Amino acid sequence: MDLFEYQGKQYFARYGIPVSPGGVADTVDDAVAQADQAGYPVVVKAQVQVGGRGKAGGIKLASDAAEVRQHAGAILGMDIKGHVVRRLWVEHASDIAKEYYASFTLDRSAKKYLAMVSAKGGVDIEAVAAEDPGAIARMHVDPAVGFTAADAGRLVDEAKLDSEARAGAVEILQKLYRCYVEGDADLVEINPLILTPEGRVHALDAKVTLDDNAAFRHPEWDDFRDIDELDEREKLARSKGLQYVGLEGFVGIIANGAGLAMSTCDVVNQVGGKPANFLDIGGGANAEVMANALEVINSDANVRSIFINIFGGITRGEEVANGIVTALQRVEIKAPMVIRLDGTNAEEGRKILKTVESDRVISSPTMLAAAKHAVELAGGVGQ
Amino acid sequence: MSIFVDETTKVVVQGLTGGQGRFHGLRNRAYGTQIVAGVTPGKGGQDVEGIPIYDTVAEAVAATGANASFVSVPPKGAAQAILEAAEAGIPFIVCITEGIPAHDEARAYNILVERHPGTRLLGPNCPGIISPAKCNIGITAGEIAQPGGPVGIVSRSGTLTYQALYELKQLGVGVTTCVGIGGDPVPGTNFVDCLEAFQADPDTKAIAMFGEIGGSEEEKAARFIADHVDKPVVAYIAGVTAPPGKKMGHAGAIISGSQGTAQAKMEALAAARVHVVNNPTEAGEKMAELVKAL
């Protein structure tokens, strides 16, 4: 789960990482009230999960209430690269002497954490990495050992941060590490991490991605759930706990396992179709999950045929078949469907499907044959 | 021969009294696997259809001589269960659990590497391993695998693993061992480990490799193949049509920029003289053709 900037700053604050005083506003009046409280001058920032907010006019400096009113009015409702701004973060504007960068994430290749610090912050760090890789200090952190104050000190020295920032940066790095590990984040990033003319160091932005697998031990994450960033189909799928990604095509896809679901999309594409979605019902899916999946696919007006591709391992064939039967009873499925069922208890599953088969509910023996059939039913190749 | 597991492998199932553990543990036994014990804290002394349950893995090992573990424990306790097996001296651990927090997984992996270098972990979030007619640990439906070799299979995706086995069986091609390494960010066993073992196994004459978008393990495999593998390799990479930046179900299957795209992986493999194919069916056909020419 990607957090908005304001949520990331709230999360940082839980771990004692200093951020600017500020608050959330959904209306112009709220924005003025937050600005009054934070103290002028303030920065009014659009809360969208997309880069380039500043360039699009989504971040503005305001020196008094009238300016806050003007900027908040302009930014709320603004469309930034397809993301409509519904919420603002208003914070006290900081004087900036220097801008740095700091982050923790997992280096999958090394199978260790990677800490990165740079004196060249405030800009696109990927561009820095490409043009001046030496400007980013990197350190692998062993998850079984941890990250000490001495590690933080070495990293800050290697990144050549200004000496007056050293103590503050070392402290923030240790807190950021705690936020990353104890906070179960996949990524924590501060860009920019600033040094003020008074010599204080604090986070001016916050990028946090939480690990959804750890949600069971973080009840506080419930406050962060915001599904405005998803399209309607994705919202419905999320509410039903399904792994769904909306695509642009016309063949609805349901498969078990991310690999098989991706492969199913690929094969539909290869035989001339276009997948409408990626939908992985996961391992051990039961009848209820299958029925929910069909309902989500059914809500997509672009879907002209459905391809259900199940290879049972932990998922059992008869459960899948029962789910299809249940869904057919529960809702009127608009598009014809082709079902390919193999693996664990596939025989039992196929027997159950026999009872509902028609010219709109068709069983097919192989993945490739089923894909071709589904594409034909959708109106043929190339459409 | 086979790699990692064979008819002498004795398996303890951690979580045998749970729904999934029981279903798959008993299925593995019905396949012919030596399932010698189960472990559930607090349920020692009971049994599951004649399989004795112990409170700890150490007790199970002492009583039965188990030399492999099948971890079917919910995400909350799975990393701890893996470490318990390693501490009990189990050299081969298969963990099928999906949804383990990334930090738990990264910590457990590094503890294994540092303190238990003799232990191999397969998974988590993987379908397991099958050496057909000898040993099946995990959730693979045994009947879809044809015994006898000469093909070794390694795959990141569970359901694509089944698809691979199934395609080969339809064409009458046997398998020495099929390893599902799983799609999580920190897999215990990776492509290179399996390629190395298959290269060393005299009965494996050809290797099928099923990858997917995200990460750089397929690219590493390509470099390893170029330098160390002289057996023919067929590879399929899922996710050609996946849009960039979208997370496709697994933690593993995410691409950012051009790194980890299906195209980049296919190019790297093709440059290592691997037969790169476009779908699982083609993989089976290509492999059958190569096996015929051996």
Secondary-structure topology with pairs:
The complex is a heterodimer of chains A (383) and B (294).
Chain A (H helix, E strand, L loop, with lengths): L4 H10 L7 E4 L2 H11 L3 E5 L12 E4 L2 H11 L3 E2 L2 E2 L3 E5 L5 E10 L4 E7 L6 H7 L4 E6 L7 H10 L7 H16 L3 E11 L5 E3 L3 E4 L21 H8 L3 E4 L4 E5 L2 H13 L6 E4 L6 H12 L6 E8 L4 H14 L6 E7 L2 H9 L6 E3 L3 H11 L6
Parallel strand pairs in A: 14-16, 16-17, 17-18
Antiparallel strand pairs in A: 1-6, 2-3, 2-6, 4-5, 7-8, 7-10, 8-9, 10-11, 10-12, 13-15
Helix pairs in contact in A: 2-3, 5-6, 9-10, 10-11
Chain B lengths: L9 E5 L4 H13 L2 E6 L7 E2 L2 E4 L2 H8 L3 E4 L3 H13 L4 E4 L6 H14 L4 E3 L5 E4 L3 E4 L11 E6 L2 H13 L3 E7 L10 H10 L5 E7 L4 H12 L4 E6 L23 H10 L3 E3 L2 H13 L2
Parallel strand pairs in B: 1-2, 1-5, 2-4, 5-6, 6-7, 10-11, 10-12, 12-13, 13-14
Antiparallel strand pairs in B: 3-4, 8-9, 8-11
